[in-house]
UniProtKB/TrEMBL annotation:
Signal peptide positions (record): 1-20
Any single biological process term in GO: establishment of protein localization to organelle
Protein name: Uncharacterized protein
Membrane topology: Single-pass type I membrane protein
GO annotation, cellular component aspect: late endosome membrane; lysosomal membrane; plasma membrane
Xref: PANTHER family: LYSOSOME-ASSOCIATED MEMBRANE GLYCOPROTEIN, LYSOSOME-ASSOCIATED MEMBRANE GLYCOPROTEIN 5
Keywords (A to Z) from UniProt: Glycoprotein, Membrane, Signal, Transmembrane, Transmembrane helix
Organism this protein belongs to: Ciona savignyi
Subcellular location(s) of the protein: Cell membrane
Main location: membrane
Membrane-spanning intervals of the chain: 239-258
Domain of life: Eukaryota
UniProt cross-references to InterPro entries, sorted A to Z: Lysosome-assoc_membr_glycop (IPR002000)
Length: 305
């Protein structure tokens, strides 16, 4: 029984290890931004790669009625951005059907040495993080004809403290990508400006959030079309939990097994166990008893040797 339990636990660990390796596997990015190297404007470089699946969700309160519109991010879009420039930033812009999604990434600033020309733009030290997200929509009526002709400008910055995506704002090593494909990231925009296109009035009854179902991005130190060793969005994965818990489970099973054996004796499938116990008891009685007299209820004395 114990052997079966141990084999099952080992098999579970093996399966989860395989899943972890698959999650870390490389894949080619759908969105690839090529821009001029600011140090050599004649040279084009692949500056940022990304895969994004999700929706831009808009909410509108029309009097007492609440309306919502969802705009799905496309599989392909016009992309542009910037290489890691003098401000140590990298920008990804997706444009489609009058919608622009702008994501700005920043990295740790590396102060150059006095003898160094330019900036340390390809240093391997430091972290990068998502600095801000901006959503611009030319006319929401194009997506939902029941809404008035309205343009939307919505933004969120890291300093607002609302970006709840773990390492995505706390910092990712610049040599690595970021990957989150198994949980939803909800990013509510903190600032939304809506303008009625018919009379140019400002509307205050719009709100926007970005719902990301899958995200992979590498904004710095891009060496090819594949993501480089992505840092997963969940630090404590099932694989890590198994590594921590498995030795404890082994120990508890070991202690329980021998504790039960100590209390109840050898298991039923232990050959010759019962005979050995009786033989040991007989030996103990023989070796310790030198004889004694005992009187029974009928008055007969019995001598045991």
């Amino acid at each position: 029984m114990m052997r079966t339990v141990l084999l099952a636990l080992v098999w579970l660990q093996y399966l989860d290890f395989g899943n972890a390796n698959t999650a870390h596997g490389q894949s080619q990015a759908k969105f690839q931004v090529v821009a001029n190297d600011f140090r050599n404007t004649q040279k084009h470089m692949l500056c940022i790669i990304a895969d994004i699946k999700g929706d831009i969700e808009l909410f509108y309160k029309n009097g007492g009625t609440a309306q919502s519109t969802s705009i799905s991010l496309p599989e392909t879009a016009t992309t542009n951005g910037s290489y890691c420039d003098k401000e140590f930033t990298s920008v990804l812009v997706l444009s489609f059907n009058g919608v622009r999604l702008n994501m700005t990434f920043k990295r740790t600033v590396e102060t150059p040495a006095k003898s160094q020309i330019g900036y340390c733009v390809r240093c391997d030290d430091g972290n990068w993080w998502l600095s801000s997200i901006v959503v611009d929509i030319d006319d929401i009526n194009r997506w939902n004809h029941s809404n008035p002709r309205t343009s939307i400008h919505s933004k969120i910055t890291q300093t607002s403290g609302v970006l709840n995506a773990g390492q995505l704002i706390e910092g990712v090593p610049v040599t690595r990508a970021y990957g989150c494909t198994h949980r939803i990231i909800i990013v509510p925009m903190t600032t939304t400006t809506a303008t009625n296109l018919d009379n140019s009035t400002t509307l205050s009854d719009w709100s926007v959030q970005l719902k990301i179902s899958s995200l992979k991005v590498q904004p710095f130190l891009v060496n090819g079309h594949n993501f480089n060793d992505p840092l997963l969005c969940t630090d404590v994965s099932t694989f890590h939990v198994v590594i921590i818990i498995l030795p404890i489970v082994y120990f508890l099973v070991f202690i329980t097994y021998y504790r039960v054996k100590e209390v109840y004796g050898c298991p039923p499938n232990c050959k010759g166990g019962a005979k050995m116990t009786k033989l040991e008891e007989s030996t103990v009685l023989t070796s310790h008893g030198k004889g004694f007299n005992e009187t029974t209820d009928s008055g007969i004395k019995v001598q045991m040797t």
